[in-house]
Design goal:
single chain, alpha/beta, Rossmann fold, eight-stranded mixed beta sheet, five-stranded mixed beta sheet, 15 strands, 17% strand, globular, CobQ/CobB/MinD/ParA nucleotide binding domain-containing protein, ATP hydrolysis activity, ATP binding, ParA/MinD_ATPase
Length: 434
């Protein structure tokens, strides 16, 4: 009995069935594969119409439910195909079963993960703080960086894009400094009542921790006054807007929001706190905002598995994905001296992977979570260029971070002893930006 086809094997099985049934050169037929919202597959080929019936029958029999229900194989002269062919010119080229093809991956959610990364920085530098898991000190590091940059005389805007587990508002603002609205309100109102200069001003809170720090929290005081509406707003904030019948994806809405704040001329640098994990809302700070991206993680299997997924997707599925790597740095959070060497080797192994390592079972650890590495004296092979790795030391004094009530946590000497490497990196970035 043949093993059932699953999502992970459906695309290579699709190509294999075509190769077996098609008598010509499949690559020469310029294949364009479309995977629909449910995961079903279809293909457009530049072949004679007489060959279509046999291919459709073979594909339908082989793929079963993973084949598009009606005519999974279509020719370039079929009705409605020209528009798809034009769209596919910017789609990534993949080599599947030895055949180069273009893949259009339709999604109801996660579409922002498929768009070409924004590589050109704006006039104001942006830095995005993201992580695979929560609790790694990402928001704490952003707050420390904000205070450090403000001490150098820069005007800092901190924006909380972690819409479901926000923290910057409570961390950097006293309760009476919280603005009326926040990011969630912006993403809801920009498609309904609109966002003007007055609304923009009502989204910004001025921190009394240090002159020069402004905050756009995820939620403002209006949501705190009407907490029962919070979940309803979150549900609507993460979807596309429709303008004159054209969808506006979430990352474009976030880009417009940041550009509106930056256009005031009140800020020299923008720090963006992204959501933990690989949710749709994480795609914008990682790929869509032209930011330098800090990828936070601690030395544990979940970190490397999650970033293996992310890096493999960007490198293999996104046009221009390898260029994005020039804007990315790993940050080992909660680092201890005893594990720095092995952590460096593990981050190097992750950064050096040529293709998705999780597709190769022999590279998995015994619990199917870890990448291949050896806890012995033999170092892992280094990449051609060293992994861009920063470190933040493990410090119990920052286990609970609340500078509004505990100003000692912002002491320059204390901050420097724990976050010194990160702060030096920020100084270098801001200096090179000049």
């Amino acid at each position: 009995m043949r093993e059932p086809i699953r999502f992970d094997t459906s695309l290579p099985q699709f190509v294999a069935s075509l190769k077996a049934a098609y008598r010509g050169d499949l690559a020469a037929a310029e294949p364009i594969v479309i995977r629909d919202f449910e995961g079903r597959l279809g293909i457009i080929l530049d072949i004679a119409e007489a060959d279509l019936d046999g291919l459709n029958k073979a594909v339908a029999e082989h793929l079963g439910p993973y084949a598009r229900p009606e005519d999974p194989v279509r020719g370039r002269d079929s009705v409605g195909v020209s528009r798809i062919v034009a769209e596919a010119q910017t789609a990534p080229v993949l080599k599947i079963e030895g055949v180069d093809l273009r893949l259009l991956d339709r999604r109801i959610v996660g579409a922002d993960w498929m768009a070409r990364p924004v590589l050109k920085p704006g006039t104001i530098p942006r830095f995005a703080f993201v992580s695979i898991k929560g609790g790694v000190g990402r928001s704490t590091a952003l707050s420390i960086a904000a205070t450090h940059l403000a001490r150098t005389g820069l005007r800092v805007l901190a924006v909380d894009l972690d819409l479901e587990a926000p923290g910057l508002g409570a961390t950097l603002l006293k309760p009476d400094e919280l603005p009326t609205y926040g990011v969630v309100d912006w993403l809801v109102e920009n498609g309904l009542s609109g966002t003007d200069g007055t609304f923009r001003a009502d989204c910004i809170g001025r921190s009394s921790l240090l002159d020069g720090i402004s905050v756009v929290p995820a939620f403002g005081s209006q949501t705190l006054a009407h907490p029962a509406d919070a979940l309803a707003k979150i549900a609507r904030a993460s979807i596309e807007d429709m303008r004159a019948g054209t969808p506006v994806p979430l990352r474009d809405q976030m880009q417009e929001m940041l550009e509106s704040f930056e256009a005031t001329g009140d800020y020299d640098v923008v720090l963006i706190d992204g959501r933990a994990g690989l949710h749709e809302t994480t795609a914008a700070p990682v790929l869509g905002l032209g930011a330098r991206v800090l990828l936070f993680g601690i030395n544990e299997p979940q970190t490397f598995q999650g970033y293996a997924f992310l890096l493999a997707h960007i490198r293999e599925r996104i046009p221009g994905g390898t260029d994005w790597e020039d804007n990315a740095w790993f940050v080992q959070a909660k680092a201890d001296p005893a594990d720095m060497k092995i952590a460096k080797e593990r981050f190097n192994a992750l950064w050096s992977m040529d293709e998705g390592p999780l597709a190769k079972p022999e590279k998995l650890g015994p619990d199917d979570l870890e990448l291949a590495w050896a806890d012995n004296d033999a170092p892992a092979p280094l990449p051609k260029e060293p992994v861009p790795l920063l470190r933040i030391l493990n410090d119990e004094r920052y286990r609970s971070f609340n500078p509004v009530e505990n100003r000692v946590q912002l002491d320059e000497g204390l901050v420097r002893s724990t976050f010194g490497g990160l702060l030096d990196w920020f100084d270098d970035q801001m200096e090179s930006g000049k």
